[in-house]
Amino acid sequence: MGIGVRAEDIYIPTFLDLFNLRFGHSLSRDPASPNYGGIAEIAALQREFQIFRGGRPFVETARLLGLGGIANDPAKNWWFEQLAKLPHFASDTSENGDERIVNALIANLARDQPLPCSMRAHDGREMDASRVIVSENATPLFFFDYRNYLTISLPMRPSTGSATQAGSSGH
After folding, report:
1. What is the pTM of this model?
2. How far is CA 161 from the centre of its chain?
3. What is the pLDDT of residues 102-133, one digit of tens each?
4. What pLDDT, in 10s, does the model give residues 5-51?
5. Contact criterion met (CB below 8 Å) for 92 and 131
């Protein structure tokens, strides 16, 4: 089980990159600085507006933050449909996939110095890998090996094909 990826969904890396840019390392915590952004800006938005909240699906905040891009409405809408399925995914804790992401982001953003975040995908065709995985103090970008990140990994798989997908549907 995993998010069923279609051959034409070449925008998925772009969607992951949008998250990674919005939640990435901040060069400045000062809103007046031209280098302000990333996790410092998201943490400020969280303090001011509670953009992540228990009971609010991750997809709704993703919509609010424009994490579906603006270049391709069909691809954006498909991406949001997939994110809306996260409550049906297991996670690396007792929470469902959606709760795991939202609660991890809430806890991270409440820190005095939140970790930058990275979203990626892993092969969800194997049953033991078909869950949302969140890890702290990961180094997803080897060229930033001195930086720890909160990493969110989504299970993805081709929408058709492999025998390990038996019983799972495409979208």
Report:
1. 0.86
2. 25
3. 999 999 999 999 999 999 999 888 877 889 99
4. 665 577 889 999 999 999 999 988 999 999 999 999 999 999 999 99
5. yes
